[in-house]
Predict the 3D structure of the following.
Amino acid sequence: MTEELHKPVMLSEVLEVLKPRPGESYLDLTAGYGGHASEILAVTRNYKGSVLVDRDPFAYEFLKGKYESEPVRIVNEDFYNAVLHEIECGNTFDMILADFGVSSPQLDKSERGFSFSKDGPLDMRMDQRQGLTAERIVNKWSERELSELFVKYGEEKPGFSKMIAREIVHHRPFKSTKELADLIKSKSRFSRTHPATRIFQAIRIQVNDELSVIEKTLPLIPKILKPGGRVAIITFHSLEDKLVKDYFKEESSFGEESKLMILTKTPKVAGEMELIINPRARSAKLRAAKRI
């Protein structure tokens, strides 16, 4: 049921750029519930030479059950530490995929606290073993810290960020996502998207240290790609996409010393049919590169 609920984003585009072939090895750094992995492994059939990583313990347990009869290695770790381990072991792969989005099961489970459309605790942890939660940020951070966070990671306007930060501090404590979302909505004018979207994004990024992990991981990618190996990365907002775009551009700009060749001059986006079936793909961008 979980697998049906989670629709892999831009699956046809991922297959187009990675071009899986029988026998090739595969590293999925954000395997989630195996949507992309299922299709790729169905082509390669190389379970023994493939690794599926996810920091979410729920996804990890699901993957273990899904592949219990196959020798694929499944790792419950954030992708930075997972990559470090593969480097230490001297492992390299023909294909690497990273999908930086929050999975549908994470969003749809109210108890995870990721979504403002469902009432749940202010949690937002992808790995529930960590200490920092959304509730701690919302209820303990200063007005200035909150305002700066909303601008930096939510890409909100400074004036709106300051006002929302002030209102949060004035109305604390908050216990649920609905409480916080309702406050933000009550202080906002009409907008096409829910006014809490960017605020929740900022808090989630901070809770999970998402951009820092991406920034540390990208320079390691060439070390675990075989010559001719392909890497595909899906991002969901401009901060992530800029990190990937800038890294690919830099790593491909050294002439004969370049380690990567860009395969997507402009990012691929989801097609119209996919957007009808999966509206959450609307903000997705796919960039890919090849190891030289």
User: Anything to note?
Assistant: The domain at 110-210 is CATH 1.10.150.170 (DNA polymerase; domain 1). The two ends are 40 Å apart (CA to CA). The chain has two domains: 2-105+211-291, 110-210.
